[in-house]
Amino acid sequence: MSKIEEIDQRVKAYLYDIGYHRWSRVHATVNRTWTMTSNIVESLNAVTKDARELPIVELLEYMRTLLERWTKEKLLKAKGTFTYLGFKFNNELDDNRTLSHKLRMRVSTDYIHTVLDGVRRYIVCLENKRCSCGQFQLDELPCPHALAALRHRSESFEQYFSPYYTRDNLLRTYEIPKNPLPDENKWNVSQHITEEVVNPSSGGKRQPGRPQKQRYKTYDEVNSKKYKVSCGNCGVEGHNKRSCKNAPKKK
Question: What is the model's pLDDT at position 58?
Fold first, then answer.
């Protein structure tokens, strides 16, 4: 929040006003993912920008083939993973493991440990998969403090993370097929659909041809007309009512 305040104080005030549960994973009432962003929406808009001009059937086929290609790429990437966890989660675990080597331990019970990180103290409960730092239960991946406790017990980490992070589940995710669409003459369309009549909208008569896309004016075009005044009598730019030849004569 200090970094946000350095950029713009209004953003900090806005985040406080809307409530912690809307932007903080710790205060959320549901278990949110690691990434909270709208980038995927912007990516889809960019990819489908030209396809949105197609008729509805061609648009749906374009979206189907797009998902088919993306699924194949992700499946090949998952098959090329040779670690127990997925690539992203395995890297996160390696970083946590590196940080855990500088921590000191005090054992309370078999499952409860006190982890000392400099002057700070953290309580780890392996039985409930929780740490007082909050990262263990939030990420569903052992934090540095939990890994220090596991190393002290000489115990493996396999049972202490979400099963969704494993390579096997990644493979199952992208093994769901995107069924190909047969040729149009092979479609089995119900009779009540083929007999249905779709009437045009009552929004007025449309001009023939493809509608022209709106072209935004350039900076020079906008400024060239910015300070020109049109005559109130004839509408011609460059003079006013007093100098207009078409102005009504005074009696």
Answer: 87
